[in-house]
Sequence to fold (767 residues):
Amino acid sequence: MTASMATTRKKAAAATKLSGAQMILKALTDLGVEVVFGYPGGAVLPIYDELFKQDKIRHILVRHEQAATHAAEGYARSTGKPGVVLVTSGPGATNAVTGLTDAMLDSIPMICLTGQVARHLIGNDAFQEADTVGITRPCTKHNYLVKDAADIPNVFHEAFYVATNGRPGPVVIDLPKDVQIEQAEYEVTGRGEHRTYRPQLEGEEEAIREAVAAMATAKRPILYTGGGIINSGPEASDLLTELAHMTGFPVTSTLMGLGAFAASEKQFLGMLGMHGTWEANHAMHDCDVMVNLGARFDDRVTGRVDAFSPGSKKIHVDIDLSSINKNVAVDIPIVGDAAHVIRRMIDIWKEEGFSNHQPSLDDWWSQIEGWRSRECLKYQDQADVIMPQKALERLEALTKDKDPIISTEVGQHQMWAAQFLGFEKPNRWLTSGGLGTMGYGLPAAMGAQIAFPDRLCIDVAGEASIQMNIQELGTLKQYNLPVKVFIMNNEYMGMVRQWQDLSYEGRRSESYSASLPDFVALAEAYGMKGLKVEKAEDLDAVITEMIETDGPVIVDCRVAKLENCFPMVPAGAAHNEMLLPGDGVSKPTDAEALAVV
Amino acid sequence: MKEQGTIATHTISVVVDNEAGVLARVIGLFSGRGYNIESLTVAAVDRNDKRSRITVVTSGTRMVIEQIKAQLDRLVPVQKVADLTIEGPHVSRDLALVKVSGEGDKRVEALRLADAFRARVVDSTRTSFVFELTGSASKLDAFVDLMRDLGLVEVARTGAVALSRGEGGL
Ligand SMILES: Cc1ncc(C[n+]2csc(CCOP(=O)(O)OP(=O)(O)O)c2C)c(N)n1
Ligand SMILES: [Mg+2]
Fold:
């Protein structure tokens, strides 16, 4: 190399030097990020300054960092793309912890950028310093502290790879303020993957063959599907539908998996688990071959583990090896991505011509019809008060043709929404399953609405939960996001009250929602429409007005105060020991049973 | 999972990316999920390729051990996990530094036993020795026990490092 070549090279390199903050924006743009949910502060000012200077990435200013994380989750779950969050150091980062944990438990791809104090101040208890990588280590899939601006391009590409590949999850990138200012060359080495992390997508052929052979001889089979199907992408849902139709197997779904298989399908038994349907839980208990596709035998699903589906051969397809044999020992484990494995299952089934000599499932289906005839979701309608189930039935009837995206808060209303709103397609149902985070629904709906400005996005809320992120009404207003907040107001932390009535002899300790705001006035204070409905005969009119209003709306739907959510698998019980509405309250529960729930 | 099964001790070898925080991830996994750590050692083993090897001795039922391995494997910077206890024969070594003080017969006896155990004297004064001893954990335990009556002052141990026998590697 000649001297002059070297100098031109050097010059070119010098010309392409960017500040850390510029590199962050460039990396996000290169990675296809369109929107960031965030909140500024001292330690991210250089990044905010760069945001100001560009127009490719949209920034949505939330009112609390927790809401930014849930908005990113809502965005991710409705689009399948990772949600991006930007918060400052210290309190900004700690406020994000709930949403990170939520995304961790529900396997939601998220990138959370946190500001950090300058490198030389780390460890000095500097102003707004928190050990963010330390605090978030157990609640992220992975995290990074960037100590050198030159690392930014690679770290960002790697972080996106990690968040979205294998079992998705949240990734934190902690960015010291002086790294945001430092100049370096922008260079992505490698292929934007992780140096060593390579999740397994294809299931092991032998195991899949063994599984399909077991399915082909099953007399009482069931497909037990979960959030893994949603995370695998819409194709996995199509394949699941094909598999179900081809085999004729009944399908049940976890809370996280709703929408992967259309609720209107005859083969769909509804959700399973603690508030699952009578038919789904009984079928799970009595089946001879259980095919778990992308679910994780969560304790809300299994009930008492030693009484969980005692006679079945269990097949478990999961992308995460650590989900297998964690809670329930299975017979045929398959580590792989749902879509890949289901596709292989379908091919093998066809190849072997299993449909031709499959045992008849007629007896099984007639047993299932027997369970169905219990009509476990039936409720006693009342004239003088709106039953929560009724409110949801009307909501569903009046919005069905609009293909709405529904989010929820946490509590009875969430379980009723899961039971009464039929989801026909994936990515329409946003709920906090694993962590059960009150305050999730409003920001999640916001995130979905940002992704789909023209879709109908509804947060089915409880009057207690909604107050946990109520400040986001300001965000709705600022961006004129037409989210509909449908509050099922029973004046109680209904789910807590239900447990207290069933297991603590009705001692309603601190579960009354006292001093509620006037939600209509509150809506108006934020400059949006507020509606209130107290009579069943007004429900349709109010819901219609809600839907037809441009812009955000809050509906204060006054519902029966003491209605309980059934069916319910009580504390420490088995699937086939469900309670139905007529079963009365105060079942005796022993200390051990109370401790496990 | 609540499982009635026999509890066994396993030596698990973990090859990880040598990067900041990786040890904290591994230790956090054990404490966060309530697994035991009997010993844990870590050091870089390949500086060019930025690899470290962690050797963890842990105990649990079969299902818990399987979970530990799967959870370790799930950590992003973990490259490989091997359960040396079940994957064939392996050698495991622990190093101890043992300080003994005494005079007269006790001193002579300590030195004689050290010799029998092939311990090396790495420091000595007129009234004390520091012995260096390597071997299996049980051999080290036996030596330390014998020193108790001979003026044992203190012990430092590395915990186990282990490799599989034979030509194969991780
Ligand atoms: C952040 C958070 N704190 C506490 C709880 C415990 N919790 C679960 S449901 C519930 C009551 C929710 O009340 P509301 O939002 O009115 O819903 P409802 O059950 O009445 O439909 C509580 C307090 C939780 N899930 N999340
Ligand atoms: Mg309530």
Notes: Chain B touches chain A through 19 residues (CB under 8 Å). The mean pLDDT of chain B is 94. The two ends of chain B are 29 Å apart (CA to CA). Strands of chain B lie at 8-17, 39-46, 51-60, 78-83, 90-101, 120-124, 128-135, 152-157, 161-164.
